[in-house]
Amino acid sequence: MELERLLRSQGFGSRPECRSLICSGRVCVNGELCDDPYNDFVPEGLNFSVDGLPLIFRKLVYIALNKPPDYECSHKPKYHPSVFSLLPRFLLTRDVQAVGRLDEDTTGLLLLSDDGQFIHTYSSPKKKIAKVYEVSAKHPVDDAQIAVLIKGVQLNDEPSPIAAAGCERVSERLMRLTVTEGKYHLVKRMVAAAGNRVEALRRISVGGLNLPEALALGEWMWLEAADLERLAQRD
After folding, report:
1. Which of 34, 72, 109, 224 is most open to solvent, judged by the fewest CB atoms within 10 Å of its CB?
2. What is the largest CA-CA distance in the chain?
3. What is d(CA 75, CA 82) in angstroms, rounded to the nearest whole number?
4. How many Å separate Cα 161 from the centre of its chain?
5. pLDDT tens for residues 139-150?
């Protein structure tokens, strides 16, 4: 693949924009400066850099973001900045989308991708992907609340009770709650129906993938093959 086409596929603009990057000496391939936009390379596994930023050719993009509070999972936010403002331009050019949404005040693990099938799989309620949340509650968490959440709570606009896939008390006002559905404000509504109130909410895992401890609020990381394998694990 010609280098200018390769850069375009990775989100670095139109072909003329990519040609300009290359001709101005801002692109290296395998550690060597390359100023010929028509040089051919095998893209799979190719190491390159743009303005010193090291990258690997990726046919599709998979990302984990540690979402901070007061950000909206929308390209057109209404009241707060968009989570997409935390990503570099080349990812936005690739039309990376959030896999489902987290409320503006909810923090933690948010997946993003430009792979339509991946987005569908991990956002579809029919797939029953487990999502684990740390719930900071206003009132002490007792055994009765845990039991009710596991048995199922009746929400006002639902035809039948919704049960947590797992629930455990971590400390006096902290519980770890697992759900497999993606309904609007689901965790908050479930906790309220059990007689408590959510003060803070953080998603710590999706499927078998945990939020990396080293990933600070507002930071993102590539998901590699091993991460995707963990993500696909159901148990």
Report:
1. 224
2. 69
3. 6
4. 28
5. 999 999 999 999
pTM, two decimals, is 0.93
Crossing angle of the two packed helices 186-193 and 143-151, in degrees rounded to 10:
120
Return the beta strands (E) in the chain as ranges.
27-29, 32-33, 47-50, 53-56, 62-67, 97-98, 106-113, 131-137, 166-171, 174-179, 198-206, 209-210, 220-222
Single-letter amino acid code for the residue at 143: D
Distance between CA atoms of residues 168 and 175, nearest Å = 6
Distance of CA 206 to the CA centre of its chain: 9
User: By residue range, what is the domain housing residue 23?
Assistant: 3-56
Measured in Å, how far apart are the chain's first and last C-alpha atoms? 41
Q: Which two tokens stand for residue 211?
A: 């939020």
Tens of pLDDT, residue by residue over 185-209, are: 899 999 999 999 999 999 999 999 9
**Residue 79 confidence (pLDDT):** 92
- In this predicted structure, what is the pLDDT of residue 131? 96
- Dig out the tokens for 205 from the structure: 């895992």
157 is an active site residue: no
CATH classification at residue 135: 3.30.70.1560
- Which residue among the candidates 35, 103, 142, 227 is catalytic per the annotation? 103
Intervals of the chain under pLDDT 70: 234-235
